[in-house]
Write a structure and sequence with these properties.
The chain is built from one helix and two strands, in the order βαβ. It is mostly loops. A two-stranded parallel sheet has the order 1-2. Strand 1, helix 1 (about 35-45) and strand 2 form a beta-alpha-beta unit.
């Protein structure tokens, strides 16, 4: 018989705490925009928890794929 060993761990959760579109730092428990939550989840995959509301990505900028602007 063969034995299958595996390890499970919980993935991070990024909770959006504000509707403003900012990228002014890390996604923390008290300061996390939708943009910051997505950037954090791209760096360390996890769940982005978005409360009900309207979220407008408004930071203008050149086309880039890092989520910092323009998306």
């Amino acid at each position: 018989p063969r034995t299958l060993n595996f390890h499970m761990s919980a993935s991070p959760q990024y909770r959006v705490t504000k509707q403003l579109d900012t990228a002014d730092g890390a996604c923390t428990a008290v300061d996390c925009s939708l943009r910051e939550a997505i950037i954090a989840s791209n760096a360390a995959p996890g769940a982005v928890i978005v409360p009900a509301g309207t979220y407008i990505l408004s930071i203008a900028g050149p086309g880039e794929n890092l989520g910092q602007a323009g998306d």
